[in-house]
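Researcher: I'm comparing several assemblies side by side, and this is the next one on my list. It has 489 residues spread over two chains. Same procedure as the others: predict the full complex and return the structure.
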Amino acid sequence: MKYFYYPGCSLEGTAKEYHISTTSLMKALGAELIEIESWSCCGASAAESVSDLLSYVLPARNLAIAEKMSAETSETLDILVPCSACYLNLKKVTEDIKTNLQLLDTINTVLKEDNLELKNKLQVRHLLDILVNDMDINFFKTEVKHFFEDFSVAPYYGCQCLRPYHVFDNPEKPKSMEPLILATGATIHTWEMGPKCCGASHMSTKPEVGQTLVGNILKSARGADMIITVCPMCQMNLEAFQKKISQACNESFNMTILYLPQFMGMAMGLSEKDIRLDLNLSITKKFKTKYLTMTSKPVMLMTASA
Amino acid sequence: MNTTTTKNPLAQVKEMVQSCIQCGTCTASCPNAFAMDHTPRKLWRMVQADNADAVFKSKTFILCSSCYYCTLRCPRGLPLTRAMGLLTQMAQVQNPEPFKQSHRFYQEFIQSVRRHGRVNEIEFMSLFFLSMKNPILPFKYASLGIKLLQKKKVSIPNPNIWKKDQNGLEKIFNKVRELEEQS
């Protein structure tokens, strides 16, 4: 397994632990990641509201650099993207230019200024897609050192890795994370909130709306030991505002929120510097104690019930 | 884009939602509909009826969080999330005052990308606060900012990466503007 890697801006700042745990996990799984050289911002949600063309050109620049790297090495690699918003921005370009050749032409007129050209030769893929479809689940099972047997995990997918492009999972009833969770010995928390919206930037711009949406998710996660995410925006919304939301909803939310590669890395026994749980904003005392008790048990050869 | 756009600001969006049958699947699927002044279904009707004033006074499109449920489920296959995005973009021109804050926010964000290639949160948030000239605004973001700073979760631009490529990105931004002024 070998991929071009587009981390995106969040993974250099607010989602550092997502970057660290993704690269560590992929390495432990035997995959090689080649970071796209001098990659730039995908435009996030800002480019669309400033200029339509810019919202295509900014992601396209990164795709064109990856194509250039691919041509130089004669290797056609998929582009791995852990952030769902970056994934969608990049993916949107590759989808839209398939049918809109005039758009491709305009994009290339702009990219020419940077001596780049987009030919649409590479696939953009979300981290979850790659873990589900490229990773050998049996290999992962043999690598699991710590069995999360008494843990219940709520898989949270969010929106943009599922919709609008129907790629690797059911956009209404996603299940792709379940085999990965079961392989660690944990059970799946049954809930309907997996594909529901966290409100994205509402949490800062329209807090009362964002808090309602996240409050519903946290409420529905009651009984689980943790929520697992695959997007920096979802992660931030679920972990950073639990106190405020508790006050607003008259509840008391205290839930552990982890990135999927952190969780898988923990199960594989990767070191603290590889998963950086210290950077998460919400890891409960109860969870820490339970996890420490689990990891202090002697490692035994067990077969996961999955 | 074309001459009809300048005459009717809603023309482009109207074309997108022309075949809307008013079934309301979008409204029923929208996680933010509870907070909107007009439901998405009603907004499309207003667009179809060229009621630009009412459309740009509405808060409906800025409450879209791009979850793509409506786009996924629309029985007519209409690009509704994209239509909401376009309305947000246009509203900043048509009815700037209520959208001043989000407009400044996005402008400073993009300017930060233009300078560094990537988002530099500290710089862009500082410039955003300065441009809003509102001394209370920074406090709204303070508690999260402090949490992130304590964990050193803010990006620091790497000048070594950007020295060689900055010019290329600058040329890209200039070309985009040039093409947009032509159209």
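Model: For your comparison table: Residues 144-296 of chain A form a domain with the Rossmann fold fold (CATH 3.40.50.11810).
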